[in-house]
UniProtKB/TrEMBL annotation:
<dbReference type="Pfam" id="PF02627">
    <property type="entry name" value="CMD"/>
</dbReference>
<dbReference type="InterPro" id="IPR004675">
    <property type="entry name" value="AhpD_core"/>
</dbReference>
<dbReference type="InterPro" id="IPR003779">
    <property type="entry name" value="CMD-like"/>
</dbReference>
<dbReference type="InterPro" id="IPR029032">
    <property type="entry name" value="AhpD-like"/>
</dbReference>
<protein>
    <submittedName>
        <fullName>Carboxymuconolactone decarboxylase family protein</fullName>
    </submittedName>
</protein>
<feature type="domain" description="Carboxymuconolactone decarboxylase-like">
    <location>
        <begin position="20"/>
        <end position="96"/>
    </location>
</feature>
């Protein structure tokens, strides 16, 4: 499968992608546990069906020490016992923030309140930025049919 567009193939898109990569690095440096960042990134990508990002975040998470069991159960996190309450709150926020078109009113207050029980304001900001960023990255990769499977852990860090 070939991508419809090479993001680095034109000066305008290359500049924009470099800006997005810089934003991604800034978000990664925010005060949110790396494990939580990878789980959230993976869950958003699974919901959106972004094969490129699923490939990237499973490999980056595994390289950072995440277990295969936890990675494999992200799609069914509600029924899985392998996540902390904080991680579950982050995953719930990720789902609601990704599926905003599925229901009126956006993210429910109870989902936000549960996340706020486990994360301070800086960490909540990091979660919001990460969820938003992942939705943007997923959409760009899906629209242009970026192929999955060849990503090497840490390739964009």
């Amino acid at each position: 499968m070939d991508a419809r567009l090479n993001f680095f193939g034109s000066p305008a898109s290359a500049k924009a992608i470099k800006g997005l990569m810089t934003l991604g690095k800034e978000i990664k440096a925010m005060p949110l546990p790396a494990t939580t960042q990878e789980l959230v990134s993976l869950r958003v990508s699974l919901i959106n069906g972004c094969a490129f990002c699923i490939d990237m975040h499973t490999k980056d998470a595994a390289a950072a020490g995440e277990t295969a069991v936890r990675l494999n159960l992200v799609a069914a996190w509600r029924e899985a016992t392998v996540y902390t309450e904080a991680e579950r709150a982050a995953l719930a926020l990720a789902e609601e923030g990704t599926r905003v078109a599925d229901g009126a009113g956006g993210v429910p207050d109870e989902v936000w309140a549960k996340a706020a029980e486990h994360y301070d304001e800086e960490q909540l900001a990091a979660l919001v930025m990460l969820i938003s960023f992942m939705n943007l990255a997923n959409r760009a990769n899906i629209i242009t049919q970026q192929p999955a499977g060849d990503y090497v852990a840490g390739q964009f860090h």
